[in-house]
Structures are given as structure tokens and as C-alpha cells.
Amino acid sequence: MFFKYTALNPKTDKRIKAIIEAEDEQEITRLLEEKGLVLIELKNIEQKKQSSLDFVVSFLNKIKTKDIVIFSRQFSVMLKASVPVVKALGILIKQTQNPKLQLILVEVAGNVDGGMKLSQAFSKHPKAFSDFFVAMIKSGETTGRSDEVLEYLADQQEKDYDLMSKIKGAMIYPIFIVCMLFVVGIVMMIVVVPKLTSILQETGGELPLSTKILIGVSSFLSAYWYILIILLILIFISFKYFKQTPVGKKSFDHFVIKMPVFGKLFQKIYLVRFSRSLSTLSSGGLPLVDALNITSEIVGNNVYQEIIHKTVKEVKEGNQMVSVLIESKEIPSMVSYMIGVGEQTGKLELVLEKLSDFYSREIDNMVTNLVSLIEPLIMVVLGVAVGLMVAAIILPMYNLASSF
Question: Is the pTM of this model over 0.90?
Fold first, then answer.
């Protein structure tokens, strides 16, 4: 449940207002006493939070990556300008347009004002702030360079967001075209084709095999269209469930990087995530083992996670990262060689940054080429599909006309 409280700090005689999540009032009282605060007023706002249209509002107010990117950039600028943390959070609470993120920032500001470390306050909201984000904040607190670390974090998050936005933007057009072709095809088979084929059936002549197949498919869809919808829903649900299982996730992740054409693209995306995340965490002063563990959760592919976990074991035993990477088929030899050079020269962060920049450009070029290739490919598939449908209808009509 969520509570809005007002507490007094006896040492500074300052009143603190914040929103906190807790099981009951007793837990809040205990938490405030541990911070040396005296509870003045407490209000349960759980009922308000669960008001009408709760599910819809929660969905619409979902915290997007863009929200966190904007927050990180604004927060880093304020800290760079020597604005106190709590005051900076207070300003950002008013500027934040997402109500859900606004509520979280109110709680974060209250916890920090009550004496909690900034990294601990952020860690209480893992759905909004990832382990990567929290680790970077923590490293900044440890090294005393919070403003620099947060600025670097904002830069990296913006690069990641721009990269994924380009990929999604490039894929919107072909996906839209394919979906529309599917819908139009179904409508044609259910509405248009039956009217045309009924004329051919009334003639009583022998129909070609292609026409019989077209009539059969059209008749099935016209009579049992709801079965197709149910089947598609069941396939989607089964796929989602299978993907969430350990075996399913591993199989799917392996398929993603091995699939034709797009496999190379996804491999480059995972390599960018690996190199950029590890570079950012290492630059923030985090130990290599901790940085690798966090990177394994960020990379987003089970195959690369296993490679990183093996690398962690080698590093713990005193060996270099390259000893595992050079044996992995999923890691290009150039990446292994460059990381090995970085480890030997003590410039691993710089090498990883250069690798992430290189593969980011590779992804941009590959996406551009794929879009250029997909457009004519879609036209060819469309032409073949229309040609087969027309041939199945026109051919028997031509045979019928020539028989007279």
C-alpha cells in the first residue's frame, strides 16, 4: 500500500513530506524511527491509486525508456550545476509528465531527504531503474563523481535509445505492409473469391488443381474463420509461454542469432549492448567482475549471458577475459583481439567504447540495406501471391471460353 506522510526531523526542525510504500502504518513508523524522524501525519492513498480505469491508466502511464533517458539527462545537468540532490529531484518531479514516474521520484526524494543513499532509493524501483542504472549511481557515490558518472550514464542511455529507435523505425514499414497483405488476403478469400469461384463451379467443367485448392481454402475460411482466429491466439499464447521457460528462452535466443539475414543484425545489437554496458560500468569505477555480472543481465540473450558467466569465472580465477571470448563462435575474432589488447594495455574501457561505436555504425548500415532489400522483396511476394490467385481463376475461365 502507498502512504503519504509528514514527518519532523528533530535535529533540523524540518518537516518532510513524501510518499512511501509499506505493508501497514506500523512499518512506516518503524522505518521513520530508524531514520530519526517523528511521524506527524499519515494518509493512506492506496484507494486513490486503485481508482477507476486502474488497468488502463497503469498501462498508459507505463514508464518508457524515453522517460528515463530524459530524466537522466536533466538530473545530470542539475548535479553538474551543483544543485543539491533533493532539490534537483523536486524540480524534476514538477517537470515529469509521466504520473507513475512522478510518484516514484516523490518517494525517491523523500527517502534521500530522510538519509537514504541515492542508489538505495533508486534500487527500490527495479521496474523503472535497472541494475545497470543503480550500479552506475552507486559507483558515482563511491568515487565521489556522481555528476560525471550520471552525465556519462545519460550519454550512453541516449545512444542505446537512439539505436533501438532507428531499428524499430526501420522495421515499422515492412511489418505494416506484411500485416496489411495478410488482412487483405483473408478478406479476398472470404468475400471476393467465393463469388468468382461459384461461377466456375456452376459450369460443371473439370477445374485445375490450383483452382480446387483455392476453392477449398476459401470455403474453409468462409465457414470456419473463427477457428483461424482461435488458432492464431493459441499459437501466440503458447509461444509466449514457451519463451518464458528456461528451455524455450535458450532455444529462441539461439534461433535469433542464427536466423538468416537478421541473425547477423541481432548479433551486432548484442555486441553493442555488451561492449557499451561494460565500458560504461568500468568507467564508473565498478570492479570488472561486478560490471560483467550486471552486463550479463543487460545483454538480453541467453547465449551471450552464458559466455559472460564463463568469463566471470575466468576473471575470478585470475585469467583474462579474452581466454573465454576467443573460444566463442558468437564473438567475432576482431572483438576478442581488441579486448585482449585493451586488457594488456590497461585501456579496456576505451577499446570497448570504440567497439560499441564501430558496431553501432555497422547496425545503421545494415538496417538501411535491409530496408532497401525488404521493399522489393515484399513487392515480389505480393506479385507472386496475386499471380497465383488470378491464374487459379482466369485459367479455368479461359479454358471454358476456348471450348466454345
Answer: no
pLDDT in tens, 260-301: 878 888 899 889 888 888 888 887 777 888 888 888 887 888
Which residues contact residue 86 at a Cβ distance below 8 angstroms, ignoring those fewer than 6 apart? 109, 112, 113
Give the chain's domains with CATH numbers: 1-51 (3.10.20)
Summarised one tens digit per residue, pLDDT across range 32-42 is: 777 777 888 87
